Amino acid sequence: MSTNQQVIDYAEQAIIHTYNRFPVALDHGDGVYLYDVEGKKYLDFAAGIAVCAFGYNVPEFNQALKDQIDKMIHVSNLYYTEPMAKAANRLVEATGLKKVFFTNSGTEAIEGALKLARKYAYTRDNSSTDHEIIAMHHSFHGRSMGALSVTGNDHYQEAFRPLIDKIVFAEFNNLEDVKSKVNDKTCAILLETIQGEGGIYPASEEFIKGIRALCDEKDILLILDEIQCGMGRSGKMFAYEHFGIKPDIVTVAKALGCGVPVGAFVAGEKAEKSLVPGDHGSTYGGNPLATAAANAVFDLFEKKNILENVNRVGAYLEQQLLALKEKYSFIIDARGMGLIRGIEFTCPVGEIVSKCIANGLLVISAEANTIRFVPPLVITEENVDEMISILDGVLAQVQA
What we know:
Helix content: 25-40%
């Protein structure tokens, strides 16, 4: 049997060191628990960074993938497949928009959304190419050059400049600041409906409705990044539904495939026809295996009443996190929606996260001083109690 350290040492021989991984080598999962190669059990409140909505070793999901593997895995986008057609129609129905382009990841979904926005403006304005996109400070949209260009964090960008140009940054949840950045060259406004990496900050109702009205007034496309907060995590299938608005483009990934790499950008009526043959493509995007996974995800959302569970258990998680805030003076805030939540500290949380892992609890950070809770959407109140018990013990140690 391999040890954690043996796997780590073997991996470090061959993998480019772009991640400061935790010293754990995971082997398998079951339900909402993961197990390392030495057999240690971990309660998972990270879900592969908001990916594994149903936890692990889910028989119905596994069988859907096995069935598709036995039929075909890939044929390219030169042909139609039934899994792709079905997944696209289900995503259209879920988002309330019109047309889908499947990608391999969230980052690629952002890239496609940016191209779609610029092509829309290019066509509208007789081939003009000087259009601007407004993005938000403290945002995160991915690490490819386009996605990085709209990620509002200098630390991520500084070594890779020059990035794509004509990107303007505004303050999230500050409608007047966004309005001050709009001009006749603005073609799109991009934001996360709930900022994830930036510290778990939901958009305010006033802000997001104001942005929607501004976009309608100025013929600007509203792009909402729901890669992390979408697919049921907020308590609705998409977080923008809480506000009674729709974007012109939404990006989706993570829980869309529950571990199988699949993402998408979905366009509404205004932009759905902007991209034409030759404008965009993907060899693997929307292949039969990926879209079979997406179809299985939609099936399980219905079968397991996932949104009902997210709202019930999410409210209970909120109560317990607020209780911790009252107990410990070094917790500044507890915020979020559904099962995407964070608690902010007066100090960096690296030590807390590491101690949680040592005690059998997987949590992750957002920014330096916030712990992020994005567990499988099937967790129970009992799982929350177990998590709080471990975290409370760790916080007591840190306080001491």
